[in-house]
Amino acid sequence: DQQVKQNSPSLSVQEGRISILNCDYTNSMFDYFLWYKKYPAEGPTFLISISSIKDKNEDGRFTVFLNKSAKHLSLHIVPSQPGDSAVYFCAAKKVGTYKYIFGTGTRLKVLA
Amino acid sequence: DAGVIQSPRHEVTEMGQEVTLRCKPISGHNSLFWYRQTMMRGLELLIYFNNNVPIDDSGMPEDRFSAKMPNASFSTLKIQPSEPRDSAVYFCASSREIVQETQYFGPGTRLLVL
């Protein structure tokens, strides 16, 4: 039973346009969410996080939106760059635990 | 400061053989996590340690898998005997003991069991 779902396995976007990666979760006890980026042959690297007390967090070109009522979060990348081409994982954690549940990832390809 | 170090980076073995994966966490981090990545299931947490003590091993698939953390700077994940369905990328990650703390991942070990 996947508690964190990334329903789009892949996404292609033109350079300079917006990339939107989506993530859905089923557990209302999740209170902290992360996005990781992963290049081939490397481990995932932290990108941006959001707490359940917020609905938006920005860091440069990256913005994460959280819709608690819909149990949905999204990552916006504006403008997209070829170097953003990678696999993006969302992860969620329950209150008071260290255990993150990861989605299966979305492969983003930014076309030059 | 060096990141999380894993060895070997690649391992090819035959079914039935013992496999040992190694991890050195970031100095000062006292939580360590072992993950397995497959196409079908994505990143799955196998086990995590806090201050060298296993806290949650509910993700360990079966008794063929075992993990140890003899000290703060070293951990092993062992598969004995290995099976072809164990083929995956195994990641180690570490973090400080703060609930909202980010986990830092190593480069992974790509395991192929023939």
Helix tally of chain A equals 0
| Overall helicity of chain B | under 10%
The dominant shape of chain B is globular
Describe the largest sheet of chain B: 7 strands, mixed
Total strands of chain A: 11
Task: Please explain how this structure is put together.
- The complex is a heterodimer of chains A (112) and B (114).
- Chain A has strands at 4-5, 10-14, 19-25, 30-38, 45-51, 56-59, 62-67, 72-77, 86-94, 100-102, 106-111.
- Chain A is mainly beta.
- In chain A, strands 2, 4, 5, 9, 10 and 11 form a six-stranded mixed beta sheet that branches. A five-stranded antiparallel beta sheet of chain A has the order 1-3-8-7-6, with no helix packed on it.
- In chain A, a hairpin with a 4-residue loop joins strand 7 (62-67) and strand 8 (72-77).
- Chain A is globular and about 40 Å long.
- Chain B has strands at 5-7, 10-13, 19-24, 31-38, 42-50, 53-56, 65-71, 74-79, 88-95, 104-105, 109-113.
- In chain B, the strands form two sheets. In chain B, strands 2, 4, 5, 6, 9, 10 and 11 form a seven-stranded mixed beta sheet that branches. In chain B, strands 1-3-8-7 form a four-stranded antiparallel beta sheet, with no helix packed on it.
- In chain B, a hairpin with a 3-residue loop joins strand 4 and strand 5.
- The N and C termini of chain B lie far apart (37 Å).
- Classes of the chains: A mainly beta (112), B mainly beta (114).
- Chain A binds chain B through residues 32, 34, 36, 41-46, 49, 51, 89, 91, 96-105, and chain B through 4, 31, 35, 40-45, 48, 50, 55-56, 91, 93, 95, 99-100, 102-108.
Which key terms come to mind for this protein?
heterodimer, A: 112 residues, mainly beta, 6-stranded mixed sheet, 5-stranded antiparallel sheet, globular, B: 114 residues, 7-stranded mixed sheet, 4-stranded antiparallel sheet, 0% helix
